[in-house]
Amino acid sequence: MLSDRDRRALQGIETDLARSDPAFAARMRGKRRTASVIVLCALLYIATPLVALLFGWTGVLMAAAVVAAAISALFLPRRS
Q: What would the pLDDT profile of 50-72 be if each residue is shown by its tens digit?
């Protein structure tokens, strides 16, 4: 648990960051990407036995590559 002094200092840092680089602060505030990464990893974990049974280890590696590409696409900067 943070003390009140530490909490105010952290709030000041967050405020300065939001003022100096609002796009970065907005990206860091978003929880959507984290949830998406967790869901993609969970789906890969659940699907791995079925994919391995149907397509072997080659299929598992291909599925992992697709999930890795999807995760990296989440973190690519968006152009307006």
A: 999 999 999 999 999 999 999 98
